[in-house]
Structures are given as C-alpha cells and as structure tokens.
Write a structure and sequence with these properties.
Order of helices and strands: HEHHEEEEE
Number of helices: 3
CATH topology: Nuclear Transport Factor 2, Chain: A
CATH class: Alpha Beta
CATH architecture: Roll
Radius of gyration: 17 Å
Strand content: 35-45%
Shape: flat
Structural class: alpha+beta
Length: 151
C-alpha cells in the first residue's frame, strides 16, 4: 500500500543556483525522469489510473522543458487513515484518509528571476487497491482538498 500512496520526483538544480536564474534540467535529466516515472507508474498503478498518471507525468515533463515553473520535488507527509476495508477475498481494499502533500517548485518572475516555493496541501482521499503481480496496485484514486485548505 505504501508504494501506491507515495509519489516522489526529484530533478537536480545546479548547486548554488536556487533562487537565482538556474539552468534547467538537462536532456539526460529529463530522459531519466521520464524513464523512471513510466516504470513507477507501471509498477504502482492499474486500470484507468495508468493513463491518468501518465498524463500527469507528461505535464510535468512539459513544464520542465522551458516553462516558467520547475518542479524540483514532491511527496506526502502526515498520512492519517480513517478506514481500511478489505473484501472477502482479501485481495481488494479501499483505504480512506487525509494526507498532507507538498512540492518544491521554482517559479520564474516577469523580471526573469527564479523564486523557490514549497506549497503544502491537505487532501481527503479514497484509494482502491488490488493485489496483483505480487504487490498492491492502486486502481482508483479520488481526492478533494480538505475544506479551507485549497491553494
């Protein structure tokens, strides 16, 4: 279940350049990010979530290729589960809870300077998982911002 809930991506920022005008990720960085991302999606997700997560990866890669926003990292903190419900076979489970997500980004201001931010969001989520290929795979994932916490 942990792999289905964990999302983490890291792209290198040249040392000493965060907050100034850093060079973007290299073509090799982006190729590695894409390869690792697609492998993680195939391992962690099933059903319609594979396509949805692939679209999110493509969006992230597009942002990295010359946009004004650079995604440096992201993850989750403070996972709190409200319910865990298994079916009779024990191979399907629905998990509901609240999680704090975070990302580290750089945004380019109109004057060309890069500013780093680390937004955090609280999400209520429901995730359905099935046990296949010798591990748990997320097959459904719905979420909303916790009231009063949306960006």
């Amino acid at each position: 279940m942990e792999n289905a809930l964990r999302v983490h991506q890291t792209l290198p920022v040249p040392p000493g350049q965060a907050g100034s005008k850093p060079e973007g990720p290299t073509a090799a960085d982006l190729a590695r990010h894409e390869t690792e991302g697609r492998a993680a999606i195939a391992e962690t997700f099933g059903g319609d979530l594979v396509e949805r997560e692939a679209l999110a990866l493509n969006s992230s890669l597009t942002m990295q290729r010359g946009g004004t926003v650079r995604v440096l990292a992201g993850g989750i903190d403070n996972l709190s589960l409200r319910s865990i419900e298994f079916d009779a076979s024990g191979t399907n489970v629905v998990v509901a809870g609240t999680v704090e997500t975070w990302s580290r980004v750089q945004v380019q201001r109109p004057d060309g300077a890069w500013v780093q931010a680390e937004p955090h969001n609280m999400l209520d989520f429901t995730m359905a998982l099935t046990y296949e290929r010798q591990h748990w795979v997320a097959v459904k994932f719905d979420w909303t911002f916790v009231p009063g916490t949306s960006p």
